[in-house]
Amino acid sequence: MNAKAQKPKGTGIDPGYYDGVTQAIRSAAVKLLQEGEVATVVGYLPGRRNGTAGPALVTSVEQAQKLVFSPACVNNLSLYLTKAKKGVLKPGRAAIVAKGCDLRALAGLMGEAQFKREDVTIIGIACAGVYRSATNAGTPLTEATIAWKCRECTVHTPEGVDVVAGTLPELPELTPAEALEIARLEALPQAERWAYWHEQFSRCIRCLACRQVCPFCYCEQCMCDRNRPQAVEGSPRPAGNTAWHITRAMHLAGRCAGCAECERACPMDIPLNLLNRRMAKELKELYDYEAGMVPQEKTPLTQYREDDDQSFIK
Amino acid sequence: MPLSITEQNLRQLVDTLVKERKLVVGPKLTDGLALYQPLSSGQELSLAKLPRRSAKELFFPICEDILSFEKNKQGTTVNDVDRSHFPEAVLIGAPPCDAASPAILDAVFSWDYQDPFYLKRRERSTIVGIGCRQGDDACFCTAVGIGPDSDNGSDLFLTQLKGGGFACSVVTPKGQALVDSHASLFGEGAAGQTRPFEGKLGDKLDLAKIKKWLDEHFEDPLWESIADICIGCGACAFICPACHCFDINDEGGTEKGTRRKHWDACGFSKFTNHASGHNPRDAQNKRYRNRIMHKFKYYDDKFGKTLCTGCGRCIRACPVGIDIADIIGTIEAK
Amino acid sequence: MCQSDNIYLPHLATIEAVVDETPDVRTLRLVFQDEEVREKFNFRAGQFAEYSAFGAGESTFCIASPPTRKGYIECCFRSVGRVTEALRGLEVGETIGVRGPYGNSFPIENFYGKNLVFVAGGIALPPLRTVIWNCLDLRDKFRDITIVYGARSESDLVYKRELAEWQARDDVRLVKCVDPGGNGPDWDGKVGFVPNVLGEAAPGAENTIALVCGPPIMIKFTLPVLEKLGFADDAIYTTLENRMKCGVGKCGRCNVGNVYVCKDGPVFTAGQVKAMSREF
């Protein structure tokens, strides 16, 4: 899907760009619904509040004419195609609006047999980026307001999709804030790094927004909801919170698409994507693997190969 | 007699209360995130931002022990939690949407059975509310009958003045006691002009009309359309000043351990799951319907109050942009 | 402990006796450890309690023994999860916690002078068993007593010894049944689903109260049968079981619409159930 991903260069974002994407999505969605190719379009509709947008399951042409794309379109819509949201594909094929990061999730989900490629029409966005925080809604997308994941994005231009929506404008080179933060933390002595994360996890209230917003957390029974055995303490105290987040990062290793929705959804501002990104770095170093670039069933952590790196076993 | 207090003296009040070994809780800003936290000095009090979570946790903590147990050869002993050590507390800096909620929650926590964990904390605390001077488009306190100048739920209510300082209004005997015991910090005299409110707030909604629609529309396509999107996390319930569902769990081991209660949310998929596997609210539309019904109908049916203060936190926090103000506005317009 | 105002603090009780009703259903007979509690504990038929297996948690069951018998209480449960497995793992002499009694109760006094028809299925007999014995202990106050009870198979019947007692009595009419295929070679009861067997037994509705308890599917098919026999909605009583945690109306888990099963129930008339929101 995004096998040839690379970073484009440029400066500034043409404001008309978002209108172009919006029009492309609308005309594609309307056509698909009118011709009966899909029963549902999973896209973004504007919210009541100025500059906001949110996920919508659109089934009528009338609604499809209101679909939008803007920097507020932060949600990873692939969430709505997993088994956790059972009803969406039941009425028939669906079209889905996907940014590059969302596309990586779609590829990963296909590899995990969550749905078939032929069941979906993918409207890929030539994406300039989205907001870092919901509070940015209604303001221009600038270096100060763009999401960290977007600063280092290599999948601005979608590949392997059915419709490409929009033309990518020239994009500025941005400092890799997330990579710098990971480097900063890695440079800390272990005790300080542990103290940092202990402080972050002590703010966790176990709302599980991180889990619910993640397309890959579709287990029928999450290990933190089990009480036989009780693997993770249910009450929101630091030790249980730490166990929860570490275990989730481990379960996502090799699967996580890097959409950073977990971090965005966290009401307590815990920088969860750092954990997933760090795990992704391990996968890259050990197995030269990046999740979600092509749909594949066999990934480093779901298969054993004789020539797998085992240097970490001391 | 009009009372006033300067900002400096308000911070001095915090310092004084801390010295008196009271638990002083107020909004504290750390790395841009405002949260209600115990204050160790007046300087820490921040009135710049609405705290991300509500003040309910002063009375209804995220997690608290309710008993402990131990088994040995002699048998099992179960120990209560010593509530005599619950501190005298003062909550300073709660805007009306937060100050109003304990008064709403009192009803359920004292419904026939008195929850001592909540009620003892309530008994020992004084709420100093502060009128709100700015809101965003997620705020809808006026829609539910509260407003930026509502002293509902406050013991002492402060209104910000142009040029600094606050006019003070004593609302309850607790508020009076707080003023009397720190009289030197409060001033007399004409209050001065109130700082205007920046932002736009809507009109009060007809909550009775909304309730009537809810009474008659347990089944309605509205529930499907919202709930298609809801992903069933607990963010809205946990940061809400009025939501109060909780779970009770034993933690530790069978020989020695603690029973705790901690926040839970009706949005979670297994909230109403029976041991048999039967789940009365087995689809997200049923769960989201329960949320709206509980807030705008059931709590009113039982206790005559609306279980919402219009703080807008759920709107800001919802990962998928569900807007409860939009929902009740839509219902009211039907 | 009794002096504490902590509503979440249970009384301690010792397991005095254990009866395995079926391979996965057990009755515990409990005696409160504190003398004052032993003397003062009082409840009405239909009320429930929260039973603790310390370390595993609490589970909600009705108080299955009748209030007319003093000195002990009983609970009866199926092992389906962490707490019930833990309760089942305890032996005679060990301690469990009991919080209660909670909820409303059957208005037995309103049934004086009437005929009673009890209809129960499987593990749902215990909540009615407390009423049955309550009434049998005051037998003169009631007229005809009919019990229709069935389970999936013979081995799934609970209170087997008491079924035999009731069958042997001439002041009780017991109609027991098992689902088709659930009968062994020596089965001397009916074969059929409870609602059908009830229809055949056709107890009269005149001056009669019906008490029904069973899984949702059984209730669904039993209420129309009772209606056809002439029972009015306020002459039919049932007890609802929802997922409960605190038992005292605070944790927000057990509500069916605006009805809290732990506070407004668990005993309801059919009329009240029909008026509830469809979510149970």
SSE layout and pairings?
The complex is a heterotrimer of chains A (314), B (334) and C (280).
Chain A lengths: L15 H19 L5 E7 L6 E6 L2 H4 L29 E5 L1 H12 L8 E6 L22 H4 L11 E3 L11 H11 L2 H13 L6 H4 L25 H15 L8 H5 L7 H15 L27
Chain B lengths: L2 E3 L1 H13 L3 E8 L2 E6 L24 E10 L2 E6 L8 E6 L1 H14 L6 H8 L1 E6 L25 E5 L5 E5 L2 H9 L5 E2 L18 H10 L4 H7 L7 H5 L6 E7 L3 E8 L20 H20 L9 H5 L6 H10 L1
Helix pairs in contact in B: 5-8, 6-8
Chain C lengths: L10 E12 L2 E8 L2 H6 L7 E6 L3 E6 L10 E6 L3 H7 L6 E8 L12 E7 L3 H12 L8 E7 L8 H9 L4 E6 L11 E2 L2 H8 L6 E6 L2 H14 L6 E4 L15 E2 L2 E2 L6 E3 H6 L5
Helix pairs in contact in C: 5-6
Shape of chain C: globular
Specify the CATH class of the largest domain in chain C.
Answer: Alpha Beta
pLDDT averaged residue by residue of chain A:
92
Helix content of chain A: 25-40%
CATH superfamily of the largest domain in chain C: Nucleotide-binding domain of ferredoxin-NADP reductase (FNR) module
Order of helices and strands of chain C: EEHEEEHEEHEHEEHEHEEEEH
Give the domain tally of chain C.
2
Assign an overall shape of chain A.
globular
Q: Tell me how many strands of chain C there are.
A: 15
- Give start-end ranges of low-pLDDT stretches of chain C: none
Q: State the CATH architecture of the largest domain in chain C.
A: 3-Layer(aba) Sandwich
The DSSP helix count of chain C reads 7
Residue fraction in strands of chain A: 5-15%
Question: Helix/strand/pairing class of chain C, anyone?
Answer: alpha/beta
3D structure, described in words:
The complex is a heterotrimer of chains A (314), B (334) and C (280). Chain A has 314 residues and is an alpha/beta fold. Helices cover 32% and strands 9% of the residues of chain A. Chain A has helices at residues 16-34, 61-64, 100-111, 148-151, 177-187, 190-202, 209-212, 238-252, 261-265, 273-287; strands at residues 40-46, 53-58, 94-98, 120-125, 163-165. In chain A, helix 6 packs across helix 8 (238-252). The relative contact order of chain A is 0.14. Residues 1-11 of chain A have low confidence and may be disordered. In chain B, helix 6 (221-227) crosses helix 8 (284-303). Chain B is globular. Chain C has 2 domains: 11-102, Elongation Factor Tu (Ef-tu), domain 3; 108-239, Rossmann fold. In chain C, the strands form 3 sheets. Chain C has a 7-stranded mixed beta sheet, sandwiched between helices. At the B-C interface, strand 4, strand 5, strand 11, strand 12 and helix 8 of B face strand 4 and strand 13 of C.
